[in-house]
Amino acid sequence: MKTFKRLKEFYWPHKHYFLWSLFFLIILTCITVAYPIILQITIDEVVMQNQYELIIYISFIFFGLMLIKGISTFSFQYLSELFGMTSVYHLRNALYHKLQVLSFKYYDNSKTGDIMSRMTADVEGFRFFLSAGFAELIRIILLIGVSLSVMFYYSIPLAVVTMLAMPFLGMIVFRFDKQVHPAFRSVRKSFGKLNTRVQENISGMNTVKSLSREDFEIGRFSSSNDDYRQNYLNTAKLWAKYFPLMEFIGNIAVVSLLGFGGYLVITERLALGELVAFFSLVWYILGPLMNLGFVVNMFSQAKASGERLIEILDREEDILENEHAIDRPIKGHVTFKNVTLQYVEDDDAALKNISFDAPPGKVIGLIGATGSGKTSITQLITRFYEAEAGEVLVDGLHVSDYKLKTLRSHIGFVLQEPFLFSTSIRENIAYGRPEVTDEQVLAAAKRAQAHDFIMKLPKGYDTLLGERGMGLSGGQKQRIAIARALCIDPSILILDDATSAVDMETEFKIQSALKEVMNGRTSFIIAHRISSIKHADEILVLDKGEIKERGNHAELLELNGIYRRIYDIQYQDREEIMETVSH
Amino acid sequence: MSNAKVEKKSYLTRFHYTVEQVIEKPFNWKQMLRLLTYLKPYSKSYLPAAIIAMLVSMIVRLTVPVLIGKVAIDIAIFNKDTSLLTWLVVLIGVLYVLNYVANTLRIRWVNKLGQNVIYDLRHHLFSHVQRLSHRFFDNRSAGSILVRILNDINSLQELFTSGIINLLMDTLTLVGIMVILFVLSPQLAIAVLIVVPIMFYISTRLRRNIRRSWQEVRINQSRMNSHLNEGIQGMRITQSFSQENENAEFFDGVNKGYFHSFRNAAKKSAYFRPFVDISDAVGTIILIAFGSYLILKGEENGGIAIGTFVTFATFTGMFWEPISRLGQMYTQLLMAMASSERIFEFLDEQPNVKEKKNAHRFDEMEGHIVFDKVQFSYDNDRIALHDISLNIKAGETIALVGHTGSGKSTIANLISRFYDPTKGSVKIDGKNLLDVELASLREKISVVLQDTFIFSGTIMENIRFGRPNASDDEVMEAAKVVGADDFIKRLSNGYFTEVEERGNILSAGERQLLSFARALLANPRIIILDEATASIDTESEIKIQKALKRLLKGRTSIIIAHRLSTIREADKIFVLENGKILESGNHRSLLDKKGKYYELVKSQFTMLDAK
Predict the structure, then answer these.
(1) InterPro entries from the entry (chain B) (predicted)?
(2) Which label site among A276, A451, B226, B354 has the fewest CB atoms less than 10 Å from its CB?
(3) pLDDT tens-digit series, residues B74-87
C-alpha cells in the first residue's frame, strides 16, 4: 500500500476519471444480469401464462437497458483508460526529469537495459493496473454479488448448489496462479538467453566467420532454441492441466443444476424460466472467479513495478545545486587543492591529494595507464562527481558555488566515447547551444577537421545520423564530437582521448587549429600518445590516482622516470629511422 | 508591442527516429502455403491428433445444449420423468468428462505442434544466416537481422500454436450451430441468424479501424522508446552540455504524441463493445419476441417447443466468441504475412561465396599465397582492387600500408575467401580458393580483428572459441604464450571470470591479448592481423608487441600495419593507394627508394617534432 501512496501524486489528481468510470461500471454490471431475467420472464410470464402482449414492453425495456449498457460500457472503458494513461503521462515526465538530474555515479552503476525496462515495462504495468486492475476487481465482486442475489431470490437451494462449486474453483485458480508465474518467468528468461545468443552471434559474425565456427554456433543456438521450446511447453502443460479443469468444474455445476433444478421444476417448486436463467447466471459467477487470479497477480505485479519506479524517483541526487549558486561568466582558471576522490566507499581512492593550478591560456596534459585517474580529474571540474576531500576551484570559487548550467556551459567536454544523437550532423554539432548560427557550426566543424568529410556526404550537414552515429567511422565521430565541444565557445576545453581513432595527419591539423582557438582559455588533454600532449605547458603523469611526475616535456624527459619510459617505448625506433630519413 | 516577443526555439524536433512501419501485408496464398509446409513433419502425429481432440470437444459443446433443451426440458421435465432426467444428468456428466480429457490433450498437442514448428523455422533461418557471406552482413544492421530471427518468428508462434486449429474449430462450430438451428426450427433460425453478418461486419470493419489506430500507438511508442534508450546512453553528453531541460521538452512532446495516439485508439476500442452488445440485444429481442410467438403458436401448428427456445437461447449466446476469434485470426494472418515475407526474404538469400559441389578438402597447408591479377569491387561502380599480383612465400611476414580505403582489408578478406575476386585468382599452395572446401580453408587461417569481439561467457570459453575441443590446459598454455595469463589470473575468478561484450572488465589491450590467445589456439598456418589504432596504454602496448612476435612465428602473416615497429620487421611491405600497389620491398629498400613510403614515415616524424 506504501507503494501506491507514494505514487498517489500522479494518479490522484485525475481521480474524477476513475470515480466516473466506477459509476458507469456499477450501472453496467447491474444491467448485465438483465439478460437471464428477461429470459426467465419470457418463459414464465409470456409463454407459460400466455401473455404475449407483454413481449412489446419486454423488448423495449430490454433494448433500452442495452442502450444504457452500451453507453456505460463505452464510458467506463474510455474513462478508465484515460485515468491510467493520464496518470502515466505525468509519471513518465517526472521519471524523465529525474533521470536528467541523476549524476554519473548513478549511471556508472546501472545498466541501460535495466533503466529502459523500468521506463517501459514497469510504467506500462502500472498503467495497466490503474486502467484495468482496480476496476476489474470491483467488477468481479459486483458481478458475483448481483448474480448471487438474483439466484437467491429465485431459489435458495439452487443458489447453494452453485455456491458449492466456488471453493473448488477458487482453489484451482489459486494453485494455477501460483505455478504459472514462475513458469512464465522462465519462458521470458530463456527467450532472453536466446536473444543474447543470437545478438552476440550477429555482432560477432566477423569473428565467427574468420574462425569458421558456424557449426559450433549453430550447435549453441540449437540448445538455446530447444531450451526456449522446452520452457514454453512446460507452461503449456500447466494450461493443459488447469484450463480444462476449470471449465470442467463449471460444467459439473451446470449438470448439477440440471439434475437438481430439473427435479425442482418437476416437483413444481421452481419455474422453468428460473432454471433457464440459472444456466446463464452460473457463468456470471464462475467466469469472473477464473479471472480473480489474474487480477490478484496484476496487483502484485503493479506493486513490484511501482517499487522499481519509486527507486528511480526517490533516488538521492548527489550533485545538488547550491541555494545561492551564482551565474556569472567563467574565465577558466582551474585550481585543484589536495583533492581526493573515491567512487565507491571502502574502495581504493581514485584520486589522492591532487593539486595543480591552470590559469587561462594554459594547456595541461594528462598521461598514465588505464585507470590511473586521468578522466576522474577532468570530471571533477565539470562536477560530474564530487571530491571527498580538498578543493576544486574555478576562477577562485568552488565548483559547487556555480549553477550547474553556468559551470558546464563554459566547459567543452569531449568524452572518450564519441556518442552522437539520432539527428542531423548540424544539430549534433549545435547540441550544446542549439541557437547558434550555421556559420558558427561550420567554423567549429572546420577547426575539428570535420568540414571536408561532412561536405562529401550526400546531404552534407543535414545528413541524419542513425542510432549511435552509425555509418560514420570512429575517427569521423570523434571529429564531430570535437566540433560539438568547440561550438559552445568554451572557456575550458577537455579532450579525453578524443583523437584516438583519428590518423596522425588529421590529429596534427586539429591540434594546430585548437592552439589558435584556445588562446587565452584553459585546455586539458588526456592521451596515451606522447605526440598528443608533448606541447602542453604542464604534463601530469598519473599512476594509481597520484601525480607521480609533473613538468613540461623536456623537464619530464630529464627526470628519467615513468614519462621517460613511455617516451622510449613510443619512440624506440625514432633515432634510427630519423637517421635513414634525413639521409 | 508584440514585436518585442522573442521567438523561443522549439526542441520538439531535435531528434529524428526512424520507425519500421510495416506491420501488416495483404494475404498471399503462395506465402501461406510455404509457411504450411513447416507443418508437414507433424502431419502424421500432432496435427491429426490435435484435430481429433478438437473435434471431440466441439461435438460435446454442440450436443449438450440440444440435450438440455430438446430432451431434458421438452421430454423429461415436461413429462415429469425423473428417471430420464437422472439418466440425462449422468450422460451429460460423462460427455463433460470426455470433453475435459479432449481439451487437455488438445492444448498439449497444439502447443507441441506449434513449438516444434517454430523451433524448426527458427533453426532453419539461423542456420541459413550462418552460411551467408560477408556481403549479406555488410548491407544490414545487426538489429534488422535480430528482429527477423527473434520477433518475426515469434509473431508466427500464435498462428502455429492455436491459430490454425482455432480457425478450423471456429468455422466448424459456427457451421454446426447454424445447421442445428435450421434443423430445430428453420424460421426462427433465419430470424436469429440475421445478426451473424452484422457481427461479422463489426468484427472485421470496426476492428480494422481500431487496429490501425493501435498501429499508430505502437509507432509513437517505439519512437519514445528509441529516444529513451538514446537519452539514457547519451546522458553523460547531455549533462556535460547541460541540455537537460531542452531534452525534457523534446521528451514531453514525444510523450504527448504517445498519449494522444493512445487516447484516440482507446476511444475507438471503447466503441467496439457497445456495438457488439447492441447487435447481441437485437438478436435476443428477435429471439424472445418471435420465439415466444412460435411457442405460443404450439408445435402442432408449425411453432416450436420451449426446449427449442432454450437451445436457441444457449446457441445465440455462443455466436460471438467464434466470430470474434475469426476476426482476430484475420488480423493475425495479415501480421503473419508481413513477418513471413521478411523471413522468406532471408531464406531466399543465396551465399555469394559458394562452395563448389566437387570442392576438395584443404588438408595440409604450407601457406604460400599468390594473387594473380586480382580485381575486386564491392559494388559495381566502385573498384576496390585493380590488377593486384602478390607472391607471399610460406612463413613470410608481410605488411600492408596505406590510408583508409586503399584496399588493405580487401586483400585480407580475399585470402579468407570472404569475398571472391571479380577477376583474376587467389591461390594458396597452388590451389585456387574457388576449388576448396570453405571450412577446411578457414580452419587454417586466423583473422585477428581490430575490435575483438567478446562473447558472454567465461574467459576460458572465449579463448576456446578458437578451437572448441581444446582442453583447459591447452587454453591456459595459449594464454601464457601470448602473455595474457598475468591479467587473467588477477581477475576475480581467473579463467572462469564471466565477461561480456559491453562489460568494462577488460581494457582494449587485454581484449587484444585475448584475441591473440584465441588465434594461437586455433593453430593456423596463415595469420591475418588488423592492427589496432585505438588507444592502448603503453604498458599494454609492450605486451602486445611481445605477444605478436610469438604469435607470428613460423606462420605466413599478413598484417594491416599501423605501428612502425611491426612494419619495420616485416619481410616485405606493400604500400597501397586507391586499390593499387604503389611500391613494395622491405623497410630499408623502401626508404632508400625515397618514394611514397619514405614520405609517409618522414611526415609522421616531422609532425611530431613540429612546435
Answers:
(1) AAA+_ATPase, ABC1_TM_dom, ABC1_TM_sf, ABC_transporter-like_ATP-bd, ABC_transporter-like_CS, P-loop_NTPase, Type_1_exporter
(2) B354
(3) 888 888 888 999 99
